[in-house]
Amino acid sequence: MKVREFRQYLLRWYRTCHRSFPWREDPTPYRVWISEIMLQQTQAKTVIPYYRRFLERFPSIESLARAAEHEVLELWSGLGYYSRARNIHRAARLMLERHGEFPRDLAAIRALPGIGRYTAGAVCSLAFHQAQPIVDGNIRRVITRLEGIQKSVPEKLFWDRMSRWIPERQPSDFNQAMMELGALVCLPSRPLCCDCPVERLCEARRLRIQDIIPAARPRRAVQQTEAVILILENKRRLLLTSLHTFSVIPGKWGLPCSQVLRGKSLKDTANALSLKILGRTVPLILCAKIGHSITNHRITAHGFFCRGDFRVLGLRRTKGFRWATPAECGRLLTSSLFHKALAKYRAIDAEE
Ligand code: ADE
Q1: In a 3-state reduction of DSSP, which class is residue 56?
Q2: CA distances (Å), 145 to each of 1, 171, 255, in order?
Q3: Could you tell which of 17, 18, 21 is best to mutate to test the pocket of ligand 1, judged by most ligand atoms within 8 Å of the CB?
Q4: Domains, the chain, ranges and CATH?
Q5: What does DSSP assign to residue 216?
Q6: Are 36 and 51 in contact (CB under 8 A)?
Q7: Distance, CA of 325 to CA of 332 (rounded, Å)
Q8: How far apart are CA 188 and CA 183, in angstroms?
Q9: What is the pLDDT along the chain (352 residues), one digit of tens a residue?
């Protein structure tokens, strides 16, 4: 690989062809960190509104560290993978306690919760302009084609290449250019080689194998799951639970729910859930069908509602349960699965 030529073509292309993203304006370590965590497993266009809202509410490490965890989770609601939000919050608290600011050193950054080699490299290069490599899925694909790699290779190879190629000057642009090339030109299938600034240096192109490498990874089989959700309303308040056994995000408030086991009907599952929670069955009405996806799981959830005076005052004082007003539901419920269920329920309620 002619490294000087490669850098020159790539950086020239990036200067004119890169996309504008809010995290590319004023890339402070804090802003780079939050955006890179959000961008893990989530597409850039989905992340934009979440990123803007998050930065508006928590503009600094200090504001984030001083927030309650539920506030952080609320702003994360809909992005999924909530451990990312919890780690961000823990890391902000640690930084405030220990360093007072974002550490500059790769090893110190990596030691923070939820930060691995990729994120630490991104903060060091994008915010501190240190020549630290990063490797993500896009970069792996670009290297595989540039080098014409036709068999499985250890992860180390990609890091070695990036370490060798990243320039001391403009490490931020270089890393982002590699990602951007993968996202816009060196696409997983049918790469746009005619638009590629480094086409003439690409081994896969020379061998005309760019369409067959890297070989597509076998997709994880989609897991179909059915669940029931109870919407129990008493004096305009809904019953929420944070108990692990009835909830999708352990420790967070949710509507009571349960998986429908093979061979069981929806109604039987809903009745069994009501019996466990209220100590008795109540007249339940099926009111909503919601589709929801988390990684390779496709969840079809069926909402059952019952409105009335449950006279289950014991519940009020039972740990892990509470009655919540619509405004409180908006604030407390973290999974978008429950927001979807409530939106359907309210639409029916409004029609009545
Ligand atoms: N995906 C991961 N990091 C990114 C970044 N900084 N810009 C655009 N897409 C990304």
Answers
A1: helix
A2: 12, 21, 48
A3: 21
A4: 3-207 (1.10.340.30), 223-351 (3.90.79.10)
A5: P
A6: no
A7: 10
A8: 9
A9: 899 999 999 999 999 999 999 999 999 999 999 999 999 989 999 999 999 999 999 999 999 999 998 889 888 888 888 889 999 999 999 999 987 899 999 999 999 999 999 999 999 999 999 999 999 999 999 999 999 999 999 999 999 999 999 999 999 999 999 999 999 999 999 999 999 999 999 999 999 999 999 998 888 889 899 999 999 999 889 999 988 777 666 668 899 999 999 999 999 999 999 988 888 889 999 988 999 987 788 999 999 999 887 766 556 567 788 999 988 998 888 788 899 999 988 887 776 6
101 is catalytic: no
Residues in the ligand 1 pocket, defined by CB under 6 Å: 21, 36, 39, 44, 176, 179
Q: For the whole prediction, is pTM greater than 0.85?
A: no
Which residues, 6 or more positions from 313, have their beta carbon under 8 angstroms from its beta carbon? none
Contact 214, 43 (CB under 8 A): no
How deeply is 127 buried, as exposed, middle or buried, from its count of CB atoms within 10 A (0-12, 13-18, 19+)?
buried
Tokens for 315, please give them.
């519940």
Residue owning the nearest CA to atom 7 of ligand 1: 176
CA of 249 to the centre of ligand 1 (A): 27
Nearest residue (CA) to ligand 1, atom 3: 36
Q: How far is the CA of 65 from the centre of ligand 1 (A)?
A: 24
Measured between alpha carbons, how far is residue 70 from residues 60, 64, 77, 128 in Å?
18, 12, 10, 31
Pairing status of strand 257-259 against strand 297-307:
unpaired
Nearest CA to ligand 1 atom 8: 44
Catalytic residue among 5, 25, 36, 203: 36
**Nearest partner of 272 among 228, 241, 320, judged by Cα:** 228
The position carrying tokens 């988390």 is: 294
